[in-house]
Amino acid sequence: MADDKKQLLEQQLWKIADTLRGKMDADDFRDYILGFIFYKYLSEKMNTYANDILKPDKLKYDEIETHTESKIYLAEIKAQALNKLGYFLKPSELFSELARRGNAEGKTKFILADLTKVLTNIEQSTMGSESEEDFGHLFEDLDLTSSKLGKTENDKNELIVKVLSHLDEIDFDLQNTTSDVLGDAYEYLIGKFASGAGKKAGEFYTPQQVSMVLARLVTVGKTKLKSVYDPTCGSGSLLLRVAKEVKEVSAFYGQESNPTTYNLCRMNMIMHDVHYKKFDIKNEDTLERPQHFDMRFEAIVANPPFSAEWSASPLFMSDDRYAPYGRLAPKGTADFAFVQHMVHQLDDNGTMACVLPHGVLFRGGAEGHIREYLIKEKNYLDAVIGLPANIFYGTSIPTCILVLKKDRNKDAERSRSVLFIDASQHFEKVKTQNVLRAEDIDKIIDTYKNRTNNDKYSAVISIDDRDAMHRVSTGKTETTIAENDYNLNIPRYVDTFEEEETIDLSAVSNELKTLEKDIKTTDAVIADYCKQLGIDTPF
């Protein structure tokens, strides 16, 4: 039943999004439709919460402003709402009231000024409270004066009223506490926008299939997490996916450099009913200005921008994140800078899993030095997983997942060995995109859990000769990571070579002889026809 409701809600919301689709590009109408859905969500939560407070007095929130003691009631409700919900809305500021006002008496009324004021008031209601940072500037991307909404003020107003009216007719089913239908539908919309956003999609969204792999990797053997962190959190989909794999996550932490995406992440958190006191999302450049520097996290997941540029300033050589390695990641490829940052933030009993381009496995220079230090000196690398190409929006390059743990030496089965998984050929092609199926994800996770050797798929490889028990035969010769100069290119360890079928040259020769006879017979028939017709033969 929950799946049916979710599917219906997704269809209804996407249909409303179509109202804006022809007016502007994907980035813009994404911001508007998600922003309005968020406003409706906040309104319904506020209305429900206020009605619960007023229930003993047999009063309704949407009627309270006409009560003789309305100021006293509103002051008390605001105080409680700011603590519980983190924000406050007056009855006259509720979504349903604005939608009703816009369609009063069956005619479109001008509400743009009122709507702009309400969105500002939501943010201002939190000033001086504990939730101020979590709600500040949340609606700054909803520019109701933009010409993208229409040429005239009336055109803009008519479009907005139309969208609000359609949304007002949809039941968000917030009373149902057993499922997260609205949160999942919101995530679905974000995914739909990402699929049409081309290269930009990688800036804010990790496909759910990849999110699921990362989330399941960092939660193996755990039912609760003290904390989960994503240093490039985008829309927050990865953080929220981790929460689905365990019973409880005590706190969510993230950092995002893009202000619009930062706002989207906070909205996404709140829409999934994550209390404002349980998440701490910052808007800053993670490598240049880390905001959670002194904190350590039990689980870390990330999909950093592939081979991004960073300053690689020499000043970072005294930064605790990079100093132990003696080298900085190159200015043009920050992949290992993100890895070093995450390793620094990882708790001693934690697990981190991040998606990176294949180049991190074999590139030399500073990256080769950092890779060797992580493996040889620290023994943090737990697994390398090769993913199919063309699995991310906006890029077709093959990618991999690196799994790192700090307490590997405590586990005899993991000590001084690395698991390699080649999942690059296990996928389903859906239109132009490659997609991991449920069975593909299960195979990756089962192989990681059991740390097994599977022909053509996975191999447990010793780092060096210190523990000969973990030297695994590849079929031709034994190898270790050290013998390969800490090159992690997966084909060096997982043999996926398929022998071609032996060709019977005698059979091919006989077939060619038969074809030659058939050609001569056909030529003779054609020559006879030409003779009968009195024309020259074509040969």
CATH C-level class of the largest domain is Alpha Beta
Helix content: 40-55%
> Any idea what the radius of gyration is?
30 Å
Q: What's the CATH topology name of the largest domain?
A: Rossmann fold
Order of helices and strands: HHHHHHHHHEEHEEHEEHEHEEEEEHEH
Q: Count the beta strands.
A: 13
Q: SSE layout and pairings?
A:
Layout: H1 2-21, H2 26-54, H3 70-84, H4 95-102, H5 112-124, H6 132-135, H7 153-168, H8 181-195, H9 208-218, E1 224-225, E2 228-230, H10 237-244, E3 248-249, E4 252-255, H11 259-271, E5 279-282, E6 297-302, H12 335-345, E7 346-357, H13 365-377, E8 381-386, E9 399-405, E10 417-422, E11 428-430, E12 433-435, H14 438-450, E13 458-462, H15 505-533
Parallel strand pairs: 1-3, 2-4, 2-6, 4-5, 6-7, 8-10
Antiparallel strand pairs: 7-9, 8-9, 10-13, 11-12
Helix pairs in contact: 1-2, 1-7, 1-8, 2-7, 2-8, 2-11, 4-7, 9-10, 9-14
Descriptive notes:
There is one protein chain. This protein is of the alpha/beta class. The protein folds into three domains: 2-187, Ferritin, CATH 1.20.1260.30; 198-491, 3-Layer(aba) Sandwich (Rossmann fold), CATH 3.40.50.150; 504-539, no CATH class. The protein is 40% helix and 12% strand. The chain contains 15 helices and 13 strands. The chain has helices at residues 2-21, 26-54, 70-84, 95-102, 112-124, 132-135, 153-168, 181-195, 208-218, 237-244, 259-271, 335-345, 365-377, 438-450, 505-533, and strands at 224-225, 228-230, 248-249, 252-255, 279-282, 297-302, 346-357, 381-386, 399-405, 417-422, 428-430, 433-435, 458-462. It has a nine-stranded mixed beta sheet with strand order 5-4-2-6-7-9-8-10-13. It has a two-stranded parallel sheet with strand order 1-3. Helix 2 crosses helix 7 (153-168) and helix 9 (208-218) packs parallel to helix 14 (438-450). 40% of the residues are buried. Residues 468-476 have low confidence and may be disordered.
